[in-house]
Specification:
Strand order of the largest sheet: 12-13-14-15-16-17-18-19
Distance between the termini: 57 Å
Shape: elongated
Helix content: 10-25%
Strand content: 25-35%
Number of helices: 6
Low-confidence stretches: none
Largest sheet: 8 strands, antiparallel
Mean pLDDT: 94
Structural class: alpha+beta
Number of strands: 19
């Protein structure tokens, strides 16, 4: 086992995931430190690996809700993955006798300038994590979603005051070149204010809405279906007469559990149906698939049709 606490936490990279309709998600729990000029350092490699895996996604969500901060080098480097090289957007820390900029000495080699970017924050988001969110927000490069962050802009350290007491003393203060101020005591204000627990779903909806305008054909259908499924999951479902649908459809078995229709196909993982109204259902686990129930002349369900966003379909009586 390693004694390096940063390695034990995978240098802050908790999760890297491609969500339905090709939305990238990076859960970053700390801004691990590294030195510029050496690409082989573990912290930089960890973030580069996450960004590389998500490099082909239609939009990006970076989750900082559980991120308490870290190193300014990572703030600058991660920011450079989304802005034009040499952009004048970085905070400068003014301290006693010296200044320090968060602008990276090494810029990300392939910045994504047009990819819609969403950053999730909470009252736990602090320090360097706030610096990244504040920098991207001030540069109008990202939409911030969630709750106001902690408001810890000024770095410092605890100083022994004697008799068992200590006091936190700031030794520098950041100034953003765009806002001419910082977030000390105020926190970063979200552009879209929602409870931090629901911020991922909100950001996913915003991301899908953002990318829809630029997609065509099957890609557009896939994104629209993913958005429909998210909205169906987050809103009250229309009145559902489960007895209309429950039963066997060839190899498929439809049942009800916890107020939801559940679709089983042998030993395959179950599918949860989300009502879209008019006998149409999204599949929670895979929004690129839908189920439509077909009724006979008397209004009784006689078949189930499974369709995909690419146009494939199967019918089960």
């Amino acid at each position: 086992p390693s004694n390096d606490p940063h390695k034990r936490k995978n240098y802050g990279v908790r999760a890297v995931e491609v969500l339905p309709s090709n939305i990238g998600y990076l859960d970053l729990r700390q801004f691990a430190g590294f030195e510029f000029g050496e690409r082989e350092q573990a912290a930089r490699q960890a973030v580069d690996a996450g960004l590389q895996l998500l490099s082909g996604t239609n939009a990006m969500i970076i989750d900082l809700r559980e991120n308490g901060g870290g190193a300014p080098q990572m703030v600058g480097y991660l920011s450079s993955a989304f802005v034009k090289k040499d952009s004048d957007i970085f905070n400068t820390f003014h301290g006693r006798g010296r200044t320090m900029s968060e602008a990276p000495l090494d810029w990300h080699p392939q910045p994504r300038l047009d990819t819609p970017l969403f950053i999730l924050i909470s009252g736990r988001t602090a320090s360097a994590a706030e610096a990244f969110a504040y920098t991207m927000q001030s540069a109008r490069r990202a939409i911030i979603v969630g709750e106001t962050s902690m408001g810890a802009a000024n770095p410092g350290a605890r100083v022994d005051a004697g008799n068992g007491f200590n006091v936190f003393v700031s030794f520098a203060s950041p100034i953003n070149p765009i806002t001419k101020t910082n977030w000390e005591g105020r926190g970063v204000k979200p552009d879209v204010a929602v409870a931090s627990a629901t911020a991922p779903e909100t950001a996913r909806q915003l991301a899908l809405q953002a990318v829809l305008a630029g997609l065509q054909g099957d890609d557009a259908t896939d994104a629209r279906w993913a958005l429909d499924a998210l909205q169906a999951e987050s809103h009250s479902a229309p009145t559902l007469h489960a007895s209309d649908y429950i039963g066997n459809y060839g190899s498929l078995v439809l049942s009800e559990a916890d107020g939801h229709l559940i679709l089983k196909n042998g030993r395959r993982p179950i599918r949860t149906l989300l009502s879209l109204g008019d006998d149409r259902f999204a599949i929670k686990e895979d929004p690129s698939q839908r189920v439509i129930f077909v009724r006979d002349a008397n209004g009784k369900v006689e078949a189930l049709e499974s369709i995909t966003s690419s146009g494939g379909s199967d019918r089960y009586r």
